[in-house]
Amino acid sequence: MGRLVDPRVTQAIANAVLIPTVAKISIGHDIEADVAVEVGSNFVDECEYAAVGVAGATVFIKNKGAQPVPFICGVTSLAECLKRLKEGAKILRIKQTSAVRVDATLVVLKRILAEVIKYQDEKARKVWLRNSVLEEADFDRVRDAKDLSCLPLYGYGGISTPRDVALMMDMKCSGVFVDNTVFTSDNPRNRLKAIVAAVSSFDDMDKMIDLSIGTGERFV
Q1: 24 labelled catalytic
Q2: CA atoms of 211 and 204, how far apart (whole Å)
Q3: Helix (H) / strand (E) containing 74
Q4: Backbone angles phi, psi at 117, to 5 degrees
Q5: Which is it for the CA torsion 76, 81, 84, 90, positive or negative?
Q6: Rounded-to-integer distance, Cα 23 and Cα 33, Å
Q7: What average pLDDT values come out for the chain (220 residues) when binned by 10 residues?
Q8: Annotated catalytic residue within 24, 64, 83, 95
Q9: Pick from 9, 107, 158, 182: CA 20 to 30 A from residue 212's CA?
């Protein structure tokens, strides 16, 4: 959605389902966040798609931790990861600003991983921190890290098969957001079940082959 819909719609969805609901709000819009929480949203996504004003708005909500529900934010770099976490975000997802494709998601994940490894070097890190609003203490979360498990980072963008999920988990993501194109597959129920199973079976090739069978012939 472009902006937060009629709060009655959000409330009706939250009351009708057992799974957690996510409300997308405009970047920096405290009031939209308050409304989303009040009508029963379990998560708030401070979303680049719903930005107020010009593209690339950067005035994010600074006290996300004050809200009773977790905030989700999109990221494309390690700096963005650490900034959003400093503001109180609990979940980070890959930011998609153009074509939503799993290969584009993988490119961003690898870029963030390269930065995590690069800035373990003290000299490189000091130069980087000097040119940002971050402080040495903000880097503590990823200090000595060798993979992305140091961040609450979720794969997002074009993830619609068990193999896509396995790819994200192999990159040490904390989880995935599944693309809604799964509902256009020939067998969305089976595909969704297989996607969920792939989160814990991603490193078992025999299991992955089994999970890929019968999930719908149409490629999405």
Answers
A1: yes
A2: 10
A3: strand 71-75
A4: -70, -45
A5: positive
A6: 8
A7: 71 89 90 92 85 59 94 95 96 78 91 96 92 91 95 93 95 93 86 94 94 70
A8: 24
A9: 107
